[in-house]
Amino acid sequence: MKVGLGFDVHKLVDNRKLIIGGVEIPYNKGLEGHSDADVLVHAIMDSLLGPANLGDIGKIFPDTSEEFKGISSLILLEKVKFLLEEKGYSIINIDCVIMAQKPKMAPYITKMQQKIASILKIDEEAITIKATTTEKLGFVGREEGIAAQAVSLIKLKKNKNMV
């Protein structure tokens, strides 16, 4: 088994939808980025890619590529799942935290878990998503951006060729 850590942060800007965990959250700002800037899914992807020695999302999905401009991060997450399966890994669990002063995330967490579990084809109980503020400290506290962190546990599947 291997443990992976992922972290991501995006700036809050006007005239963008706020997408976190694959869920559109009503808010007067959204996250700036090349894709849909889903900070939670980006952290999850990095936490899965790292322990499988696949690099990070910047390597796999470069922000210089038009192919990924405006793309749903859930589509990218599905590609990460495929890459893990190609290397023989399965996902055991994912534990995440979203850091946002506003808006409140609690009403959307169950839907986020459902969407992510559906894409990864794992049980919803294998994904824990928590949310916190930073008590008005730092860029999150000043409502300049939102951050997310994820820790994942993956396991190499045994096959008949392995000892």
UniProtKB/TrEMBL annotation:
Binds 1 divalent metal cation per subunit. A divalent metal cation binds at residues 8, 10, 42. The record marks 34, 133 as: Transition state stabilizer. GO terms for molecular function: 2-C-methyl-D-erythritol 2,4-cyclodiphosphate synthase activity; metal ion binding. It holds the Pfam family YgbB. It comes from the Bacteria. It catalyses: 4-CDP-2-C-methyl-D-erythritol 2-phosphate = 2-C-methyl-D-erythritol 2,4-cyclic diphosphate + CMP. Its cofactor is a divalent metal cation. One of its GO terms (biological process) is terpenoid biosynthetic process. InterPro entries: MECDP_synthase, MECDP_synthase_CS, MECDP_synthase_sf. Its EC number is 4.6.1.12. Residues 1-154 form the 2-C-methyl-D-erythritol 2,4-cyclodiphosphate synthase domain. It is an enzyme of class 4 (lyase). Keywords: Isoprene biosynthesis, Lyase, Metal-binding. 4-CDP-2-C-methyl-D-erythritol 2-phosphate binds at residues 8-10, 34-35, 56-58, 100-106, 132-135, 139, 142. Pathway: Isoprenoid biosynthesis; isopentenyl diphosphate biosynthesis via DXP pathway; isopentenyl diphosphate from 1-deoxy-D-xylulose 5-phosphate: step 4/6. Belongs to the IspF family. Involved in the biosynthesis of isopentenyl diphosphate (IPP) and dimethylallyl diphosphate (DMAPP), two major building blocks of isoprenoid compounds. Catalyzes the conversion of 4-diphosphocytidyl-2-C-methyl-D-erythritol 2-phosphate (CDP-ME2P) to 2-C-methyl-D-erythritol 2,4-cyclodiphosphate (ME-CPP) with a corresponding release of cytidine 5-monophosphate (CMP). Homotrimer. This is 2-C-methyl-D-erythritol 2,4-cyclodiphosphate synthase. It comes from Anaerobranca gottschalkii DSM 13577.
